[in-house]
Amino acid sequence: MRSLSQLRLTGGWIFLFLLCFIVLFPVSAEAAHEHVGDFLQLGHGARGPALANAVAARAEGSLAARYNPAGLATLETGRIQMSVGEKALDVEQGDVTLSWPASSSGSALTVQYLDYGREDRVEIGTDGSPRREGTFSSHDFAIGFARGSKAGKLNGWDLSWGWGFRLLRLNVDNVYAHTVSGELGGYSVSPSGSNRIGVVFRNFGPEAEFDERSEPLPYLLRFGIARRLFVEDWGKAWLIIEGENRRFDKTSEFAAVELEILERLALRAGYDGRTDLSDRLRFGLGLNFPVGNFDYAYLPGGDLGDNHRFSIEVKF
Questions:
Q1: What structural domains does the chain harbor?
Q2: How far is CA 182 from CA 36, 75, 200, 201, 313, in A?
Q3: d(CA 69, CA 117)
Q4: Which residues pair with 260 in a beta bridge?
Q5: In the Cβ-directed half-sphere of 61, how many Cα atoms lie within 13 Å?
């Protein structure tokens, strides 16, 4: 039975979550629709999307390489994660992450792709007859490196910071663009491990230059807080609240709950404030084993179709 002081502390954290949710991030704006923006805002693995990508304050394991590089400082074992998914209209995506610990730090290599497929286009000539224009494709590819390091303690809280970059190769209708994006992150864990704070500045860098146009990167600032609600013999539960500001103009809110049962099964649900109201909920589960884990995410897509993500992570 938890004591009254523990209940009050939990209630105080829930109040802080709600305050951040209502006051700090009250506006939900549409996500950028640029091609490079769609690619850089993809989720990583399956656990992250199942939590509506609210992972800046729970950046652990392979996910830290994409969501908050400062979390790589908490790595204890090497890991390799592979994920695949099929979005609406047969759009395919996937990623691979190799992460490993070192003295007071951790590093990771990432590879990510997004394939929109091929399309045969036909135009109508001046005489009214169809004429084949050609076959066009669109696909994106990124390779990156991230590193997180411990930065000491502050009032008993463990502090870490991290940085990373990604080299991007983008293709829209057979027209290519290349650029680089960077990220900086901070991560803090309370002495009990029950409270965590994460902040990350992502996707900053030069514009992607196509033949006749350029697209700015969707740089964003994200802040999150995570609270472990309870720990029992049969499991534990986490609540996460995060807010995001894109291009210092558009803000969105995120929330997630993760229930871990007997250290083997994880049930997840998330709320993504960037999407349409009918498509904001995400769900998923994970199976945890001593040698690794398997994760699944279900992301409803409305009229465009649903998205299923699968990932496997192996420890070494």
A1: 4-315 (2.40.160.40)
A2: 14, 21, 11, 8, 25
A3: 31
A4: 236, 266
A5: 20
Contact 34, 247 (CB under 8 A): no
Q: How many residues does the chain have?
A: 316
Q: Which two tokens stand for residue 92?
A: 């395919």
* Nearest Cα to Cα of residue 94 among 70, 107, 110: 110
Give the torsion sign (CA, 290, 58, 164, 150): negative
> Hey, which residues does 101 pair with through a beta bridge?
106
- The tens place of each residue's pLDDT in the chain, 316 residues long, gives 455 555 555 555 555 555 454 444 443 333 334 556 677 777 888 999 999 999 999 988 888 998 999 999 999 999 999 998 876 666 788 899 999 999 899 999 999 998 877 666 556 666 666 666 656 667 889 999 999 999 999 999 999 999 999 999 988 777 888 999 999 999 999 999 999 999 999 999 998 888 778 888 888 999 999 999 998 999 999 999 999 998 766 788 999 999 999 989 999 999 998 776 667 899 999 999 999 999 999 988 765 567 889 999 999 9
DSSP state of 87: -
Q: Which long-range contacts (CB under 8 A, 24 or more apart) does 60-64 make?
A: 61/99, 61/313, 62/97, 62/99, 62/108, 62/313, 64/99, 64/106, 64/108, 64/146, 64/148, 64/162
Give CA separation, 239 vs 18, 23, 195, 257, in Å: 11, 18, 10, 5
At 126, the amino acid letter reads T
Beta bridge partners of 110: 97, 144
pTM assigned to the model? 0.81
Q: Is 119 exposed, middle or buried (0-12, 13-18, 19+ CB in 10 A)?
A: exposed
